[in-house]
TrEMBL record:
The protein's name in its UniProt record: VOC domain-containing protein
Keyword hit for Metal-binding: yes
Positions in coiled-coil regions: 75-102
SUPFAM superfamilies to which the protein is assigned, alphabetical: Glyoxalase/Bleomycin resistance protein/Dihydroxybiphenyl dioxygenase
CDD domains: MMCE (cd07249)
Pfam families per record: Glyoxalase_4 (PF13669)
NCBIfam families: metmalonyl_epim (TIGR03081)
Species in which this protein is naturally found: Siansivirga zeaxanthinifaciens CC-SAMT-1
């Protein structure tokens, strides 16, 4: 693993939360994005080398909607950047971690992603992400 890529925060209302985080961090969001496959709209903030991702549910049955219903707004996941997603999946499975989606899927901010089940990571939802290299 290379670094912490971002921390994901589940929010009820992205517009309200963007206003709050803009004031808190002193910088505007650099990107908003709809990720239909996950039923979320996201906003990203960059602070130095680190990023914060705000996630608002766009459907009532999305993972973020279910998370907020159970736990309320707050930290949803921590994401780590990796060089080779498939190699990390193989390594972590061998170490006994449970992978939620073994086939990487397209996530926000130009990343391929997989998630580790919180029951295998002491209650923390972990996302592994790898930059998508665009071919010219």
């Amino acid at each position: 693993m290379k670094k912490i890529e971002h921390i994901g925060i589940a929010v009820k209302n992205l517009e309200t939360s963007n206003s709050l985080f803009h004031k808190l961090l002193g910088v505007p969001s650099y990107k908003t994005e709809l990720v239909e496959s996950e039923g979320v709209k996201t906003a990203f903030y960059k602070i130095g080398e680190h990023k914060i991702e705000l996630l608002e549910a766009t459907t009532l049955d999305s993972p973020i909607a279910k998370f907020i219903e159970k736990r309320g707004e707050g930290i949803h996941h921590i994401a780590f950047e990796v060089d080779n997603l498939e190699a990390e999946i193989k390594r972590l499975k061998k170490e006994g971690f449970e992978i939620i989606n073994e086939n990487p899927k397209e996530g926000a901010d130009n990343k391929r992603v997989v998630f580790l089940h919180p029951k295998s990571t002491q209650g923390v939802l972990v996302e592994l992400c790898q930059e998508i290299i665009l071919k010219e």
